[in-house]
Amino acid sequence: MGGDSLKKICLEYKTLEKIKENESICVDCKICFKPCPMMKKYSSSPKTLMKEILEEKQVNQNIPYSCMLCDICTVKCPKDIDLKDIFYSMRKDAFKEKDKHIFKEIGYNTVKFHQINSFSPIFSKTFADKNTKKIFLPGCSLSSYSPELVIKTYEYLKKNIDDLSIAFECCGKPTLSMGDVEKFESYYEKLNNIFSNDEVVEIIVACPNCLKTIKEHSKNIKVTSLWSIINEYKVDEKLINYYEDLETEFSLHDPCPIRKEYKIHDDVRGILKSIGIKVVEFEKNRENSECCGSGGMLRVTNKEISTNQSKKRANEAKSDTVVSYCQSCCESMMLAGKNILHVLDFLFNEDVIRRDILSQRKTSTLKKWSNRYNGIKLAKSKNRTS
């Protein structure tokens, strides 16, 4: 089963019962098998894989850590079997193991480095005050890409929302995705403390992962997509139909974490239509969108499968240039050789507005951390002058 020389995760009783229940109702149609690169690598069918795991009561570490946690299997399954939940339960079981060497092999040290820095005072800052009722949370990936884009987005929001502040905070999704629930909860407590302010009633998020994570873990606060806000208040008047003379067609990639957020799908398309962008749809779009390859922290835990999935998804684009509304997805498309723009590039990136560029440029890891730091500096400067 996928290479017996690898370390194995001993599975908890609850996980085994979950597998047993789902294996019994699986009809082995293999519909979920087709879009999943992980199952193709480690088994001949999902039912066979579940049977083998039940027999051994353990699983090779690479199997759960090669799942993109993208949920496409459940979308396709005629029996609504949630394989993502099964593989994620295995990840959580890994953190109950006494043998901690497994974490080095799955790249957890890289994730820990990212998270320690993301929650440090150097790279996180909330600018809320007693008048704050709503908070804009741009997210780690967008802040790493362009602090200027983040600040211009914030300025746009401030024009329409008086009681808004900005927070450069991480939602803790990388830690959560790895299965380290205990550490995630300690990280997320920082966000809970921000949200528990009685005056804060709404969080506006740009990142699909932030939206999903906060919705699931802060059920007492309203979480709104940036795209719904922009579609409601409309883009700057000068941008209406601004790009209609642009001959380039853009394949629109929908991020998999929000495959069930149908209104957001419509909002993004409404924004792009209003500015005159020629959108061509992926055959598998909206709810049926396939992962860009970075889901489930696969870029760290199984780079080979991640890279292959990014190339596969990029090759499904019907044009040379792709647009998305998730910066992690943008990076995946860029790694796969596609020209890529974020929706916000069309709205606030002066180089794109002037038509000087029609694709993002690759950014080094050091530059990404520098961008995050500079975003906080820019926000401090804006707060002092406002």
Low-confidence stretches: none
**Shape verdict:** globular
Strand ordering within the main sheet:
3-5-4-6-7
Counting H and I runs of at least 4 residues, what is the number of helices? 20
- Per DSSP E runs of 2 or more residues, the count of β-strands stands at 11
Helix/strand-derived category reads alpha/beta
Q: What integer value in Å does the Rg equal? A: 21 Å
Mean pLDDT: 94
> What profile does the largest beta sheet have?
5 strands, mixed
Keywords:
single chain; 386 residues; alpha/beta; 5-stranded mixed β-sheet; 11 strands; 50% helix; globular
Explain what this protein looks like in three dimensions.
Strands 3-5-4-6-7 form a five-stranded mixed beta sheet, with helices on both faces. The protein has a four-stranded parallel beta sheet with strand order 9-8-10-11, sandwiched between helices. The model has no long low-confidence stretch (mean pLDDT 94). It is of the alpha/beta class and 386 residues long. 45% of the residues are buried. 50% of the residues lie in helices and 11% in strands. Helix 9 runs parallel beside helix 20 (365-385).
Q: Concise description?
A:
With 386 residues, the protein is an alpha/beta fold. 50% of the residues lie in helices and 11% in strands.
Write the SSE topology.
Elements: E1 8-10, H1 13-25, H2 37-42, H3 46-56, E2 58-60, H4 72-76, H5 83-94, H6 101-105, H7 108-118, E3 125-126, E4 134-137, H8 140-145, H9 147-160, E5 164-168, H10 173-178, H11 181-195, E6 202-205, H12 208-217, E7 222-225, H13 226-233, E8 249-253, H14 262-274, E9 278-281, H15 298-301, H16 303-315, E10 321-324, H17 327-335, E11 339-342, H18 343-348, H19 350-353, H20 365-385
Parallel strand pairs: 4-5, 4-6, 6-7, 8-9, 8-10, 10-11
Antiparallel strand pairs: 1-2, 3-5
Helix pairs in contact: 1-3, 1-5, 9-20, 13-14
